[in-house]
SET domain-containing protein
Amino acid sequence: MRGQVPSASILVNNDHVEEITCHRLNSQAGEEYLIRWVVSFRGDSTDIPHSWHGVSELGNCGEKLQEYLDTLPQSASGRQERQNKKTSKHHRQDIKVYNGKLDVQNGMTVGIQSQNPDIPRVDILHIVTDAMQEEAAHTKTTAAAALVRKEILRRLSSIPGPTVSLVNNVDDSSPPLSFTFIDENILGEGVYAAHVDTITGCLKCKAHMGQGIGCEYSKLCDCLEYAAVNDTERMLPEERNRWEQIQRTGEGDTSGLPKKFPYYSSGPRVGCLVPFYLDRRHPIYECNSKCNCGPNCKTRVVQHGRQVRLELFKTANNRGWGIRAKDRLRKGQFIDTYRGEIITDAEASRREKGNNLKDSYLYSLDKFADTCGFSQEEMYVVDGQFYGNITRFINHSCEPNCRQYVVAYNRHDPKVYEIAFFATRDIAPDEELTFDYLDKDEGDEDDDDQVDPDDRKKGGMKPTRCRCGSEKCRKYLWL
């Protein structure tokens, strides 16, 4: 459909928008934003259509609108200062479109080139003009910020599980619209998860054994085949001999030796990690769809998804966005998994090299590298920068209250598994959730924490100052 005159009720086609470059206040339409349109050049490359549009027309352009708002001062006081100033008298309200005309295509507004001599012409090299910049500096962006916030709230409401709320008492910014919430990891090019036929379950366990909560005996549960041996458990003489031989040689089958189920099955911490896993960070194996223990088995926690209410909030000490729980969390309680694009090590290196941002959202899936003999190049990496879930916004602390653990549903796939966050202590409602980006196990501390930042720079590393504020703060992050 072509040839119609767009009205304020027709949305701008985001795919035809190059960028938003300025804003002004129209006494009738309210806030208006200057769009630079994508065009197929015909003649002078400085002759590119631009046009002003009200916020009501920009419902599909939230990401580009947010990109523009992010170029403006973000402090609440700075915004208020602009709102209190008078509108520039130099702005010409009568000009709506420059270097082209507006058309309606497929029910949406687009900007196209026009050779009509009556159309106001502006050289792209001289736009945005000084007068436009002056007015923009004095004009509020309340409606645009509200549009972006509305879209973020819509996305948060679509996340499975209990409510994820949003709070910002610092400024009028919103979390990035360039980030997409996903329910499952995305497998990138060259990444392969083990085929579903490789999944095997526990066949000796039953759904109504003992307490009626699935698996009951760790020695019989096939899903614990590769789980850590519970060597503090009383063993039969032949079991003890076999275990000692495995420890000496590093080889052997631990099936049938005493293991430990990962979660409490009763009491006040039911469903929470037991100390055997919480303190020592052994890989956690949950039962799966091939098991005979049933969907209510006590080993199934992470696979049921997030069960806690969370809040995404803007931190007041320049640490960006953070996450806090709205309910009290118990020590060992599951919070949520880390989601993203699973990519190859080579692709991760390429992205890291081209990333000019200080933040990194790469997480190596290397838990089984040593035991399986995988090289660094064979490992996969989870990238949560543009695709992921709410855990992408959990901040670092040198003294954290959460930790990430490996959780597998297919014990035969050592390269693709879950990264799950658990509380490492009781956490009060509205206390920020944090984890240590260095992800060191107990006893793994080395001399890295004491290295001078200048020495790190010489080695090609870029130290980032830590703002966690904890008593044990290491002062720098080595991302």
In short: The two ends are 51 Å apart (CA to CA). The chain has three domains: 14-158, 160-440, 446-479. Residues 14-158 form one domain. Residues 142-157 form the longest helix (16 residues).
